[in-house]
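Input/output pair, single chain:
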Amino acid sequence: MRKLVYFIAATLDGFIAGPDGSDPTGPGGFWSPSEDYIRHLVEEYPETLPGPARTALGVTAEGTCFDTVVEGRNSYAVGLAAGVTDAYPHLRHLVFSRTLTESTDPRVELVADDPVSKIRELKRADGKDIWLVGGGELAGALYGEIDRVIVKLSPLTIGSGIPLFGRTAIFAPNAWELVDHTILKGGAAFLTYDRGPGIA
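Output:
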């Protein structure tokens, strides 16, 4: 069965974005990824690079991890604000929203249904794993469905912002097993955890 993988950049203090939810690496953002960070993405996770970045870097590799990306409305809005209607045209792209009524791009699928039910349906289908790109609120809603977390840990703190699982996630302690890690010279770390048992 396919896995739902939360592949997400986070600060040392556990935030995926600043308080306003804007792109941390975009114009006016608080983090500029190092060259070795970008190189690692190109080599190991090329499908997670947005279409414009793939074009700029000359990346054509299909990738081996994901063929589907899911995100929430707020995360999708970051791309829209930059004039990008489909940041991942090389993947099946689903946006969960109860307020958007019409997709701005024919390749982007809007899903107003319960995200848990939809993710379970996607998991049963054939294909590569499903990438949960964000944001925190959707990750919180799908907390019990996430099979793997890959944290791209950036070597900085910001003090406050949007937490890894949003501001409304339920309290449900769970153990995670570290199954892989890569530490880059620029200070970032890629940490891969698989879901372990819940903690009573």
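The chain has five helices and ten strands. Helices lie at 35-44, 51-57, 73-81, 115-124, 136-141.
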